[in-house]
Each structure stands twice: as structure tokens, then as C-alpha cells.
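User: Second chain of the day. Same drill as before.
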Amino acid sequence: MYPQAPIVIPVNGVTQPPPVIPGNAGIQAVMDPRAWPGMTGGRPSAAQRIDTPLGAIGYRQAGTLTRTRLILLHGIGSGSASWAAQLAAVKPHQPGLLAWDAPGYGESDGLNLADAAWPTATHYAERLWAWLDALGLTQPLTLVGHSLGALMAARAAVLQPQRVAALVLMAPAQGHARLDAAQRERLLHDRLAALANLGPAGMAQQRGAAMLTPDAPTELVAMVQAVMAQIQPLGYTQAARMLSGGDLLADLAQLRCPVRVASGSADRITPPAGCQQVAAAAGVAWTDLGPVGHACPLQAGPAVNALLGLPDVGAT
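Assistant: Same format as last time:
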């Protein structure tokens, strides 16, 4: 069973009942190159790029821009391509969906602030709103944050709550602000040392499979590794430092919008216990996406699509 949180997500201004999440289906449709042409060659290029007063943002779009309702924010070792199953589910005439490359990722400019060596979630949230302003989107939006993206989404909701219809946190990273200083320093050191010693491609080969369950199809592992291999060292370093000082629970305490928290029961990066703690802090039930790993938007594509009110990838 997949327990449902006792809230609803607005769709085109109308609240919808919690979806019935199907069992985890195959990922053949997700991997179909006809559904994701940018994946050829292993380096998906950003479909679009737009300038903002805070720096350019690369992003992927599906559906009708003016009717956009979902904004997808990826995690630290990823990029906009990690939302392939969600982007592929939306037809051109349907309400829009946008997936950004965070600052310093893909085609997006890195943070360029005086104190950007130690950025906070606020820096990313400000860039998010600058991007959406540049696109002319003023309607309330549902922010969907995966892993580190949950910290960005929550802070964005704190900064401009009137623009947020709902918050969906997938396998959320809580941030390390509540750990003792020595532990925070060790975690950050180990993460950045791996990047320095292995490089993005080596880190992807070593760590990519851990984003999934051991029984994940080879082609899905390859896709996760291909996306991870494209991270940029500066952008990753800035994001790692933001994670070190992040405090998701503190931001959730300030929010009044509907919240949902979901993850896979086999997630080894943000295990269920931590995600359940986030759900409890938000006052909602945790949604179990099934026996999938940390890369739940890909490995649990049908379940995530149902949660977000999207059709299955293979639907017509």
C-alpha cells in the first residue's frame, strides 16, 4: 500500500484528491530515445536558456508555458535530465512543467556573489524566482524538490509564499545545520575530496548505482551515471556547501502551504526514517513510492507522475 498525505495539490486552481499511486512499472518508456532525444551521446543539452538579473538559467520545458503549474528542482549529483519521466509525460497542449538546471549545473551560470563560496539556500531560491520572473510566470506554482532540491524549494516558499500553491519534497535532504560542527566538516570534506580525486565521471561511476536499488536495469544505471558525470566542479562545490549549512526543518516550520513528502522504501541516500521525520515536521503522512532508490523520479516514474497529477509516460 502507498499511504497518502492528508492534503491535496491544486491543479489549474482546482484542488484534486490524492492520487492512487500504481505499483512501480517498467522504465522502458522513460529510456525510449523518441521520448528523450537529448539523451543521445550521454550528455543531454539544455533545451532552453534564459538570462536573469542574477545569471542565466538552463531548463527543460514540457507542455504550455503560460499554463505551467509544476517546477522541478533536481538534487546535488544530478540535473534537469533526472526528470525525464515527468517531462516525457506532458503533451504540448497540456499544463506546463519546467525542470531547471540549478546554478552551476548544465547550462546555468554559477552563483556569482561576494559570499558565494558559502552559499545558502536563499541564494538558490532567489535565482529560482528571478528565473520564473524572466519567464513571466506569476501564477501560484507547485514546487517539487528532489533531494537537495527540497532545500531550494522550501526556502523559495519561505521567501515568496504567495507564489507557492504547494510543496512536494521527494527524498528530501534535510541539510546538515543540526549536526555538530566536526561532523558537518567531515561530511563536506569527504564529499569534496571524492570530487577532487575522482572527477565528475569517476564519481558517477563509483556512486551512480547507489542512487538506485541493486536490481535496477543496467540502462537506468547508465542514465543516472551519464547525468551525474556532467556535473561541474564549481557548481557541485557550491551546492555541497549549501547542503552543509542547510536546515530544511527550520524552513518547514515557517510554511503554511500544502506539503507532501515522498520517497522510496529502499532509498539508501535519504532513508525512509529521515523522510518520515520531514513529513512529521510538516504535519503530513509520508508517501511510500515503493521499493525504489534515491533516484525516485526515474526509478518510480509512474508513481511520481501519479503523485504530481501527471499521466504515465506511456499514456496517450
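The chain has one domain: 10-307.

User: Great, on to the next one.
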